[in-house]
Amino acid sequence: MKPLGLATLAALLAATTQAAGAAPVPEELLSPLRAGRSVGVIVELDASDVDLRARPQLPERYRALKDRVLRPLQRADIEATLDYSHLPMSFKRLRTEAALRALAARPGVRAVHPDRLYQHALVQSLPLMAQPVVGSAGLRGAGSTVAVIDDGINLTHPDFGGCTAVATPASCRIAAVQTFVANPNPGSAHGSNVAAIVIGVAPDARVASLDVFGASGALTSSILNAINWAIAQRESLNIVAINMSLGDGTHQTAPCGDALGNPFATAITNARNADMSVVIAAGNNAYNNGSFSLGLSRPACTPGAISVGAVYDGALGDRTWSAGQPTQCTDLSTAANQVACFSNSASYLSLLAPGALITAGGFTFGGTSQAAPHVAGALAVLRAAFPDRTLATVEAQLGATGTALTDPRSGSSSPGLNLQAAAASLSASNADVPTLPEWGVLMLASFLVWRGIRRPSAPLSLAGGNG
């Protein structure tokens, strides 16, 4: 896994490549507007003059920025629907093409993002990652919280500690339950399974369940709202990681760090600046150079995110999966640490973790959705056990100490999750991994732009595998 600490550089480089004048107008927004239908858009503002290090003042400074840029644009065909207090973004509903173009042309508007739909990226796993050894030594994640952005949960399931209500009784591991969609999906199977996996890895940690799924999926605006909530509650709940077991099924052959086209680039940078890791399922589309070429889905492709693919937790015989494609994929035989055929693969995949088959929260599933919360739980354990270590150091050790696992279909290699090895390495280390200071990032960005390099050719933040 490549070292972290340069997420700011990617944002700086992307900002330098933006053309002067109006923000780009996404083509997919024009068709419905011309047909007389309204569209939801995420408006991202240029926050380059906002000091991100002053975290307590960010909501006030973002509010002043939004008032300066957006308040003068008062139109009947622009409805202010939702604001994100800890992100330089607002959600609006537009009724005309003229409104879209006026918004994109407004000075200070960096990008206008479509409100896209995302879907779920659908106990032997714990010994495979050496969790019992760590747990028996007392490293169980006490005091830390993981925000699980998914659908709802079955609060009263025994895996959550005998909850009768949120945080009640004291044994209850659910710290918060929030809904970010008007008509939530009544199902709770996927969210319960994902949240319970986190608790299985970090038994003394807590989960904040953030429901973003409606009947058709989860919209960008709802997911951003949940990320914003996690940033706002980071200190009060000690949220150390965000887990997103979801994706859009797209095929991103390279990191999607261009903030003009990916609204999650800024959101994940802000979450990391708030000292939270962001763990995202790689996707279940079999993008592994077999029937389909390499690539991760969005938002797993976002620089700064920990993208997680799935391995089997044991020998399960032959398995056939739908893989999110019209064509199924089949593993004729299975074994522990074998990459599952459905798991998306790429040279910049961060980690591999147990994802098939995982029973937790009263349900059994297989997918990168199940692999991601193993990593989120591991981060909860390590951040609680080593509070003096930086986020960058803990993440780097998860990759550096994992055994390289090769996907035979693609030949790409990514580290497998080994919680015991990461804990041992952090325990033995006397100092954090050095990171480039802010002035160094600025100088390097200026030099690259001066040399005419408009965009990084390799991921500049969290990346894994052999790339």
Notes on the protein architecture:
- The protein has a 7-stranded parallel β-sheet, with helices on both faces.
- The protein has 2 domains: 20-116, Alpha-Beta Plaits; 118-428, 3-Layer(aba) Sandwich (Rossmann fold).
- It has helices at 7-17, 27-34, 58-70, 97-105, 125-128, 131-136, 189-201, 220-232, 234-237, 263-273, 368-385, 391-400, 419-428, 438-450, and strands spanning 39-45, 78-84, 89-94, 109-114, 117-120, 145-150, 174-179, 206-211, 218-219, 239-244, 246-247, 277-281, 306-312, 319-321, 329-331, 351-356, 358-360, 363-365, 404-406, 413-415.
- Helix content is 31%, strand content 20%.
Overall spatial form: globular
**Into which percentage range does the β-strand content fall?**
15-25%
Oligomer: single chain
Helical fraction: 25-40%
Largest sheet: 7 strands, parallel
CATH class term of the largest domain: Alpha Beta
- Round the mean pLDDT to the nearest integer and report it: 85
| Count of DSSP H/I helices | 14
Distance between the termini: 8 Å
**CATH homologous superfamily heading of the largest domain:** Peptidase S8/S53 domain
Radius of gyration: 21 Å
Output the CATH topology of the largest domain.
Rossmann fold
Order of adjacent strands in the largest pleated sheet: 7-8-6-10-12-13-16
Tally of structural domains: 2
